Amino acid sequence: MIGYYDFLRTATPYVRANRGRMFIVKLGGEMLAEPAVASRILEQVSLLQHLGINMVLVHGGAPQIGSLCERLNLPVRMHAGRRITDPQVLEAVSMTLCGSMQSRICAELTALGVRGVGVSGADAGLLIAKRRGAVADGQGGLVDYGEVGDIIETDPRIVSLLSGAGCLPVVAPLASDGAGALLNINADTVAAALAVATGAAKLIFLMQPAGILSDISDPASLIPELDLSGLSELERNGAIAGGMLPKASAARRAIEGGVERVHFVSGLAEDALLREIFTNEGSGTMVVQDA
User: With the C-alpha atoms ordered 39, 189, 261, 212, is the resulting torsion angle positive or negative?
Assistant: First the structure.
């Protein structure tokens, strides 16, 4: 096992190279469902903030939203990894993301010496979206996602102001339609949009798997580095499917929008985020532009 001194010596060039730059971290709700796991992740995020990297946290909340919907006897419906949201479900989404989840995240960040500030995409015009129309379901039918939006405008000034004041923005994936209505947005999509709009150096997805696998049934098939062509090939052969599809789409959008690196990292493995950022070997999958 690498010693602390050796780790610090290895990490120093990475700290120096990234100080003052912005990282967008997308944290899935499944990572927040287990308190011990959430604490380990937030410790790593706070350490990066203390080292002078401007961190922005975008959080999902699928398990927590599903749990509230179940208690409220609301149907939970998904298609291609995305939630179908009727007006009642939208209320549950807002209550979960902008209420209990953000409050807990910010409280824990405060305990770690970081000034976390919860915002949603509807705050200060951060995200403007249009309601998504019905889309083909791939089987000859149509899917109506309900109160779900597609981002048409991103104004990152509130995020930049908070970050410049030494705060860590904690962003819930909701948006305004510009006319007073609230829309649900996929958190992966929000993270990519913010990464592009803020000129972030990295977009990092924290999730259950160790990274992108060439064989979804084999945890040992981790791919350490991948370009966009390789990502497309994995989508075509079915190695990327379900909830990974929005992440792959978001990664592509971020890279094509100028983000240098997109990382897929396990939130379950101890110190995986730090190892991905501060070591040559990394811990997950790094996606880059085609050569």
Answer: positive
pTM of the model: 0.92
Q: How far apart are the first and last CA of the chain?
A: 34
Where exactly are the structural domains of the chain? Answer: 4-70+99-127+154-174+186-288
- Burial of 164-181, coded b for 16+ CB within 10 Å and e otherwise, reads eeebbbbbbbbbbbeeee
pLDDT digits (tens, 9 = 90+) for 99-150: 999 999 999 999 999 999 999 999 999 999 999 988 887 788 888 889 999 9
β-strands 261-266, 285-288 pairing: antiparallel
CATH number of the domain at 4-70+99-127+154-174+186-288, please? 3.40.1160.10
What gap in Å lies between CA 279 and CA 259, rounded to an integer? Answer: 20
